[in-house]
Protein 1
Amino acid sequence: MTPDIANMLAFGVLALASIASAIGVIAFKNAVHSALSLILTLFFVAMFYLQLGAMFIAVVQILIYAGAIMVLFLFVVTMLSPDTQEMEKNRLSWQRYAGILLGIVLVGALSYLIYSQVSSGSIMQTQHESLQQVVQKQGDIQAFGLALFHGFAFPFEVTSLLIVVAIIGALVFGRRSS
Amino acid sequence: MPAVVNLPPLSAYLVVSAILFTIGVLGVIIRRNPLIVFMSIELMLNAVNLSFLAFSRFLDSADGQMFVFVVLTVAAAEVVVGLAIIVTIFRTRRNIDVDEMNMLRG
Amino acid sequence: MQNFGLWMLLPPLLGFIILGLLGKVFSRAVIQTVAWAACGISFLAAGLNFLVMLGTAPDQRVSDVVHYTWMASGLASEFKVDFGILYDPLTAVMMLVITGVGLLIHIYSAGYMKDDPGFWRFFAYLNFFIFSMALLVLANNFLFLLVGWGLVGLASFLLIGFWYQRPAPVAAARKAFVINIIGDFGLMIALFLIFSNFGSLQYQEVFSHTAKLAAGSTTAIVICLLLFVACAAKSAQLPLYMWLPDAMEGPTPVSALIHAATMVTAGVYLVARTHVLFELAPTALLVVGIIGGLTALFAATIALVQLDIKRVLAYSTISQLGYMFMAESVHNYGAGIFHLMTHAFFKALLFLGAGAVIIALAHEQDMRKMGGLWKRMPITAWTFLIATLAISGVPPFAGFWSKDEILSTLFAQAMSTGNAVYYVLWGLALLTAALTAFYMFRLFFIVFTGTYRGEQAVVRRHEEEEEEEEEPGHHATPVPYYEIREVPGVMSTPLVLLGILSVVGGLIGMPFWSPFGQFLEPIFHGVEAPHLSGGMEWVSVILSLVAAAIGFGAAWSIYRKGYAYREKRNPFYQLLFNKYYVDELLDAILVKPILALGRGLTTALENFTLEGVSRGIAGVFRGTSSGLRTLQTGYMRNYAFIILVGVVLIILYYVVMRG
């Protein structure tokens, strides 16, 4: 089916916007500007998620990623910022150009592969029950919840362990050096 | 391909994801401020999340969303620890230029 | 017929083991007893076996006993070597000589070596030598002959280098061993050829199947010449004789036993044992004879002017061995063995007598410092005189009969074949006989008659510091004349016994009555030894007596009035005195180039190749690692970059492959 105009337009705008703000992340000299740019990018990517039908993830992205994580980033950036201007000369200036070149190559290669593989329809079908049917029956969030607690209960528990570890790590680092 | 309601093709999403990823990589390589490097890493993670979700939608499976869930959690934990490290380094060295941390040279 | 081979073989081995392991803690009396007993039992066994043999009929006097099979390899045991003992008349004679003279020298050594700290070692080695020589002679196959051959070489090495704390004996031992190896090599190749032609290494097998080798064929000649190479090395013939004079660095009993009476005669024994093969190769026999003759004359000329008492005797041994080979070369193996036996008696006696003199003069070996010992050491002097008469071929002493037989057999061969070569050989032999008489009596007169010159050396030594480097002996302070004493009984008894043997030992081999020849006849029965008719026999006898008389007369006239050493400048004398400069020649031609080659190879191989390769390899690693180290910049961004490069490469690979 041909995608309809609204979706294409939305996609195009979002794509351009997210790419532009991503470039902003790496281009700004000021770290605070970079952080704000990243927040924007996250926001646009969340829009993408919405378009793809992942409601819960989109919301979680905005709440947690853009909300909590980036705020943390901003704290640290502002704490360290006066000293973080890149004042000394760059010892590896050649990497900038080489990196850009390689970046272009990477994008080109990946795009090529994507187009050649994906368009040819060589992607496998999955064996799990169709998501769309569940969504239609019970709604997005319910679908997400069912999948999480039926198939991925163990990873879910493990992630909580991971968070504990991170907390402990942060505490250890946060102590005044003894 | 199962019925996807008029969305742009899968390859489009994947290309966008690839571009975002590459931008993140460039950020790691080019910038010297570790905070910005970290942010670039977050950017890369997000690009990957995007492609996961695209596949989830187009392959009609919830697995992709599960992956993204876990990746999100991991990213959060990672940011916590990473920022703690950077702060600690700043405390001891008063300087967070990545190029100055070259004591592992051979 | 019974075979007491093991009783002859094993006691000395046992003695060696006991003395070798425990000798250090034994007292001298115990060591002596063990050694004497070991050799004594061997001698008793040899004697008993000999008597048993006399009691059996002549055609049954062979006993070939196999004790066990040492190795049998090949699908049908094609290569089978047994440890077996062959006891026949030839063996009987050899064993009697070896153990008998050996026992006398064992007894003598107890006196000679009594102050030496290595007393136990000496007797251990001596027993080992008796064992090895017995093995060589008793073996019933070529392989154990080779084993014995090698072992006696080892025993010789150990005994020559007995006083290893000094450099000269060590060098001499090394020289002996190296030259012997050449002989061993020849023997081994000969063994290979024998096996490939006859299919077996047993004497019985080889000697009874002579049809497998065509007479006069090249193979036969080659085998015999290779065997003779071994003989030339072991019996010090040209061109492998150089080790024997140097071997005099060993203790005098060693020189007596090994380098006069027994080991050097192994070559003569070998030719006699394998005479069947030599009969198939007349050319080889001719070569044997020529070398024997040339050696005899060559060595005799050198002995004319030597100043060390032992060196004169060493060259004399070489010369007499040449005689034995000359006899064997004209198919008269019996005469060679006969001379072997009589030579053992008088040469051992000469060496032991020389040893007595050396001991009495506190290890002085330079004849210029001797003289007038007749009155002080009567027993030694008399026995020495007997031996000198014997070696010079004066009847009725032992040497006369054996030497005369050799001369007459050479003459007979010359006359019967008309071959000029044999006439030349006979002439050489006759000339050498005259020279032998001369230098032996020169030795006798210088040492025993005249006035004692040792004390002049005492005076002179204070005046001049110069001492020639080749002066032999340990030269301690010279012994004053009135302190020279006859040696004790343990040393003089063997002298007397050997003296008796030197007197009567030859009487069993006289031309008209030769029980010795008859005894050995079954062994050599296929061979026709040339003999002179009655009339010519007398001619030969008279000629040999004339030769001896000339030699004696010349010595008498020159040296009777005492001896005053004057260094002669004439070049002929110098040539003889320096042994024809053979050692120097070989040093320049062989030794130095080989050492230089070795040094060159060491430089090339070690420095260049080994060091180069190993350093090269290490260098490669160092280079690579320092090259790789540049990757470890410590900059995180570099690492990230490299990761990116890697990722790009992988993706490009997919692009290329799948695209």
Protein 2
Amino acid sequence: MKPFTLSLSRLSEDWQATLIGLAIAAAIGLGLIGPGPQTLTLKAANGATVEMSAPAASGWKTSATLDGDRVDVAGAVSALAASSVYTFACRDGAVTLETAAADDGQPRLTLANACAGEVVLTLKRDSAIPWPLFGWFAR
Amino acid sequence: MTITQTKKLDSASASSSAAQASRLGLIAGFALLLALTVLVAELDRLIADAFKAQGVARNPLEYPLTAVLIGLAANGLLRLARIYGRVRPAFRTEFFLKIGLVLLGVRVSLGDLLATGVAGLVQALVLVTSVFFFTWWLAGRLRLPATLKAVMAAAVSICGVSAAIAAAGAVMAKKEEVTYITALVILTAIPLMVLMPVLADAMGLSPQVAGAWFGGNIDTTAAVVGAGTMHSQQAQEVAAVVKMAQNVLIGFVAFALALYFAVVVEGGKGQRPRPAAIWQRFPKFVIGFVIVSALATLGAFTPGIAKEIERAGQWAFALAFVCIGVEFAPGAIRAMGWKPVAVYVGATVFNTALALLAASVIFGALGGG
């Protein structure tokens, strides 16, 4: 039996363009080009403290909910640096961030919940590496 | 070694060097194209900054026009240097445009696609039928050859170069006729791309109606996207979708033309087309556009990622706009005389007026004003 092979050059221009377009969308969408979209979520019940490591990068947007209701995060930063610990503390229905230095390593996120309810902290970073090349046409 | 064997070896070696030269030409051409596009981007920024310094917030010389002009300049220089033929394979307007259109799907939700696409299809049916038969009639009055008549009618009524190629295949037109129509398509598309957004603004058309007008009138899809870009983001989206609705009719028209030539022109002696030819001519990039649009609608891309996909598409469009200028072949027009030019211009004027009416009625009724 003849093995199935797919050669891009044998396809019509229409199919070539379609596949290349889809490949570009997939590569950017899946983060194969640049780190892609990232979401970090920390969930802590009343009285609990949870932690996790995060990639050192900029462009983070932080949001939090207390029992499903959105609450402000005071002092939120958009850049997470290496050798740093970011402590998000929930007290009296509000979340505040304190940053401290640590030993070498990835940034550490800590969520300490002293509020009466479950706190969900989300950090989102939806932009891949900023591409100056693409930005040339951005007005 | 016999003489025959030596000849065979020589011939194999010659075809291998020709293939290598063609590959090198393709690579060099693509590198040149990229460099020209980077130049366009840089010029676009400088021009925008210059206008801003004069208190003009929006750059009136949008990048599609800069790209076409840079392409035309490169075209002239490459021909003067006699290297145009070598790098020519890299200049593929339609190819880059189709990649850009697939990526444009990220900006158009399925709901909008359905609304604009259905209205675009209605408009396309009205325009393609009317403009095709008008061009056919006018070309008949000036006694143009049947094959040129068919290629020209398809090009003016559907989507320029792609339709001309599809129709030429269906009616066995001469290669020179396709080259000629391609040159005419570009020659009329460039001024229309620049003038129509200005006229749309002067007439106070909404972005929807303006986009539908560009999509229904300008022959080549690249210039349609260019005109939309120069007008507004919404006009670009509508223009692209309307043009794609028109593009999907290529297969049907090519099939009908092939059948007409086999039965009527060749008196039943010609080969009748198979219905599969309709699918063969179907613009497959529309499928890619719908897939990306569906993914975007389902929330597969975050706003930042969607923006980056959109910018990648913008690069593909910029490459296509530069190619429009580089691919223009003015020599082909001189060879054919004034009659086909008169038919083409007459058909374009008819198309412009009818497309404005159709866009105002159909897209105005959708709430586009």
